[in-house]
Amino acid sequence: MEPIAFGKGFNAKYPISLVEQITEFLKNSIMEGRLQSGQRLVENELQRKFKVSRAPIRESFRILEKNGLLVNIPRKGTYVRKITKKFIKETFPIRALLEGFASRIAVSHLKIKDIKEMELALSNMTDAVNKNDSKSYLKYHSKFHEIFIKASGNEMLIEILENLRNQAVWFRHTHLAISLVEESFEDLILVHREILDCFIKKDEDLVEEQVKNHILSAEQRFSELLALKNENQENYGVDI
């Protein structure tokens, strides 16, 4: 088995706990594609790389498994979760309902500064589309949604949605070869403009509907991306 290639080193910093640092490092490695879907994580190898004991690594695994990024298979080991059609079909409808609900709650809690931050995020999303910069688009797209989700003030809802959204962003990051044009990002800019207008107008019903429909539409796009990935694997025998 080939050693894990992280791309950049790990340097412990204090007083942040080792568990937090390792969790964040592994999470970023998964989200940015340095750790691939289905790849096994070996405790001994990580111990050598991080120069730490086994305990913080195991705790980090536990956290990332809870967050849906890792999966432990008894007597086999810990792996980066594979994204399947079933996984997408099961998670996106749940996220649509919960994020729609968060948007409804947020309407009465959003402050002027929140609206301005969402407008800035949308402007940056538009610039990224014009530059065909997928990574920047994803960064500001996440920011746009995080603002109103946090404004909901419901801590349990925020935590659940953070996990669901991490999984979606991770999948998107692993398919950046798909261009912005093919992804119809221009249409997505319009959708987010409409969502923002709903917040400005304080229309709870419409913003909830818009957010739900936006995420359910994303389910279809993600399923198509996964089908394309599987087709390429069959045709060329490579893991893209």
Helix and strand topology:
Layout (H helix, E strand, L loop, with lengths): L17 H14 L8 E2 L1 H8 L3 H13 L3 E4 L3 E4 L4 H22 L5 H19 L3 H18 L3 H19 L11 H17 L2 H33 L4
Antiparallel strand pairs: 1-3, 2-3
Helix pairs in contact: 1-3, 4-6, 4-7, 4-9, 5-6, 5-8, 6-7, 8-9
Quick tags:
240 residues, mainly alpha, 3-stranded antiparallel sheet, 9 helices, 68% helix, 4% strand, disordered C terminus
User: Largest beta sheet, briefly?
Assistant: 3 strands, antiparallel
**Tally of strands:** 3
**How far apart, in Å, are the first and last alpha carbons?**
19 Å
Radius of gyration: 19 Å
- Percentage of residues assigned to helices: 55-70%
Task: Please state roughly what percent of the residues sit in beta strands, choosing from under 5%, 5-15%, 15-25%, 25-35%, 35-45% or over 45%.
Answer: under 5%
Q: Which overall shape is indicated by the principal axes computed on the Cα atoms? A: globular
Structure class:
mainly alpha
Separate helix tally: 9
What is the ordering of alpha helices and beta strands?
HEHHEEHHHHHH
Mean pLDDT: 84
Strand order of the largest sheet: 1-3-2
Query: Which ranges are low-confidence, i.e. pLDDT below 50, for 5 or more consecutive residues?
Result: 176-182, 234-240
